[in-house]
Specification:
- By secondary structure, the protein is an alpha/beta fold.
- 41% of the residues lie in helices and 16% in strands.
- The chain is built from eight helices and nine strands.
- It has helices at residues 17-25, 51-62, 74-81, 96-109, 134-162, 184-204, 233-237, 242-254; strands at residues 5-7, 29-31, 42-46, 66-71, 87-90, 115-118, 165-170, 209-216, 263-266.
- Helix 5 (134-162) links the parallel strand 6 and strand 7 (165-170).
- The longest helix has 29 residues, at 134-162.
- It is globular, with a radius of gyration of 20 Å.
- Residues 1-15 have low confidence and may be disordered.
């Protein structure tokens, strides 16, 4: 019996719709590996006003998802709204009441959150024990770690009750390796954020919910401006771009429910991970 299924990788010559339709007419079926459609999925991106969060929002909107971008800065959200069919909402992830109100608003006005992306993050220029301001340490920990907890805690009960859901926890390579360039508060907060994502995944998997920690290396985002010496345009060009991380998120989000991806490490070529 002839196997009349083909994968996209097996048919590089049949890329246009006409040729694919001819194969379909002959009884062939395109094999996609059971990938899910993201059309009309409700997505909440915390930290969606710029950088990686905005890149992920754009990619998911292009797949037909209903994307809500949330961030502290109204100006960044209004600018982002010009780039796609987004709903926007001001939200400080460090404030539990604001997070709860935002999740409730999304649920009532758009629908229950199918996919949460936590991409809010910050760093400070003074980042060593020698020059660290304790208040700045608290601020970084609050945004990067406590904010992630607040948002996961707000969506997990509903996801677990419905038996489905995905959380994308955008961490950093500094959440796997202590990097002096990233600094004390950033590394400490990212290790905590990583642990929260891992724990949430272990706890919620039996209820049909997955959590994926993503650990990007150097990425061209506004947070680079907070370095003691901001990188040059040439250095930035060698880094990952937000759309690189976004491509990983789309792939994970489209996987069948039988699959979970606990961790992804993605780095630029000049920053190999071992």
């Amino acid at each position: 019996m002839v196997n009349r299924a083909w994968s996209i990788r097996q048919i590089p010559r049949y890329q246009d719709e006409f040729e694919c339709s001819l194969l379909a007419a002959k009884g062939w079926k395109l094999y996609t590996g059971g990938m899910q459609s993201l059309k009309d999925k409700v997505v909440l991106v915390i930290g969606g006003g710029s950088g990686i969060g905005l890149g992920i929002g754009r990619a998911l909107a292009a797949e037909g998802a209903r994307v809500v971008l949330a961030a502290r800065s109204e100006a960044s959200l209004l600018a982002a709204q010009k780039d796609g069919p987004f709903q926007v909402r001001c939200c400080d992830a460090t404030c539990r009441d604001q997070v709860r109100t935002t999740v409730d608003w999304v649920t009532e006005c758009i629908g229950p959150v199918d996919l949460l992306v936590y991409s809010a993050g910050m760093n400070v220029p003074k980042r060593t024990f020698a020059d660290m301001d304790p208040e700045a340490m608290d601020q970084v920990m609050d945004v990067n770690a406590v904010g992630a907890f607040n948002c996961m805690q707000a969506v997990l009960p509903g996801m677990r009750e419905r038996g489905s859901g995905l959380i994308i926890n955008v961490v950093s390579l500094a959440g796997l390796r202590t990097l002096q360039l990233a600094g004390l508060p950033y590394c400490a907060s990212k290790f905590a954020q990583s642990a929260m994502g891992t724990f949430a995944n272990l706890e919620a998997l039996p209820d049909g919910v997955s959590v994926t920690n993503i650990y990007p290396g150097e990425t061209e985002t506004p947070i680079l401006d907070k370095r003691p010496v901001p990188p040059s345009a040439e250095q930035r060009a060698r880094m990952l771009q937000p759309e690189d991380i976004a491509a990983m998120v789309v792939t994970v989000a489209k996987l069948p429910s039988r699959a979970t991806v606990p961790e992804i490490v993605i780095t630029p070529r000049h920053m190999p991970f071992a």
